[in-house]
Specification:
4-stranded antiparallel sheet; elongated; single chain; 12 strands; alpha/beta; 6-stranded parallel sheet
């Protein structure tokens, strides 16, 4: 959507340029037919008159020519002055508007805590952003290509312009307060540098990096990445799985979709469901199935070990997570029941 202020000034600029063009045409026609100048000489006389540069006339002017020249000078002074003021005002307003937008965006980023930082807004970065947006997870995008930012920038997607390799840019994105960093740059060397820099600034955050070749995985993990994703390998594996077990893959794909008629899967911290310090509860005692319709299909204990299809008597300890499966309305009911945001 166009900014009304910018549109207003642009309209005034178009008007100013139109007036300048009219002045040039009047001058050319006047000198051509009043003084008998050629069209080139008439244009020359008009330009030196309008710009008041003080060059000599093409030929001596008679009284009528002088009166016309005086009229042209006075008119052009007003018109040129108006045009210059409008152009200057437009440039200043545009710069002020850009600065205001940047300050507003930075203020919004500074208010974020436990957010996600996405480095690079290419294909993988956009997919990550769309997923996070669907799950209402706060995130910031670092992108060094200004054209990409101008194309996709909105109030919903906060951008930080700059190279993610630079600590100053990472700090602008709030890396000290961030929960997770996703490095989705196309070059493995750039991802490695980002991971190293991010890990030095924030030792506790989770870092997920993209890699193009398998040999980069070990290096990225040594640099501090918790997880390394190979999009090409995942894509090939997914396509082969669609041949071997098509029904199962189609079902799994649906688990990650947020929609009105699709099932959904969610990971929830135990502390959001009850207070473990008051006494541990089991999955059976929590009774999410009866309360919300959601099924507990996985459990991740405090040590990070996963249990698929846990027993009903599984105790839910502190710093653990459960994975629940349900329809979007059931997930929504679960979030409302336990005030999960």
């Amino acid at each position: 959507m166009k900014n009304p202020l910018v549109y207003f000034f642009r309209t005034k600029i178009y008007t100013a340029f139109a007036l300048l063009l009219i002045i040039l045409l009047i001058g050319m026609i006047g000198f051509r037919f009043l003084s008998g100048f050629t069209w080139i000489d008439a244009l020359y006389m008009t330009v030196i008159t309008v710009t008041t540069v003080g060059f000599s006339e093409v030929q001596p002017l008679d009284p009528i020519d002088k009166i016309f020249t005086i009229f042209l000078i006075l008119t052009s002074i007003i018109t040129v002055g108006y045009a210059l003021s409008i152009i200057t005002e437009y440039i200043l307003s545009k710069n002020s508007l850009e600065n205001f937008k940047k300050q507003k965006m930075q203020k919004k980023i500074d208010a974020l805590h436990n957010h996600i930082i996405i480095c690079g807004y290419g294909k993988n970065g956009r997919e990550a952003a769309n997923k996070l947006f669907a799950y209402k997870k706060p995130f910031v995008v670092i992108e060094k290509d200004k054209e990409i930012i101008e194309e996709h920038e909105s109030d919903k997607i906060p951008f930080v312009y700059g190279n993610a390799n630079e600590d100053e840019v990472l700090l602008k994105a709030g890396i000290e307060r961030a929960d997770t960093l996703i490095s989705a740059l196309p070059n493995d060397a750039d991802n490695l540098f980002v991971v190293l820099s991010a890990r030095q600034i924030n030792e506790k955050m989770q870092i997920i990096s993209r890699a193009s070749i398998e040999s980069s995985c070990k290096k990225l993990k040594l640099a501090g990445a918790n997880n390394v994703i190979l999009p090409d390998r995942i894509g090939g594996d997914h396509m082969a799985s669609l041949v071997v077990v098509p029904g199962l893959i189609e079902f799994i794909d649906n688990l990650g979709i947020v929609g009105n008629t699709k099932i959904n899967i969610e990971e929830i911290a135990v502390e959001k469901l009850y207070n473990p310090k008051a006494g541990l509860k089991t999955i059976k005692e929590l009774d999410l199935r009866k309360k919300t319709g959601c099924n507990v299909i996985g459990y991740k204990d405090s040590k990070g070990e996963y249990f698929v299809n846990p027993e009903a008597e599984q105790k839910l300890e502190a710093n653990a997570k459960i994975i629940v499966l349900g329809k979007p309305e059931q997930i929504q009911k679960l979030n409302s029941e336990y005030d999960i945001h």
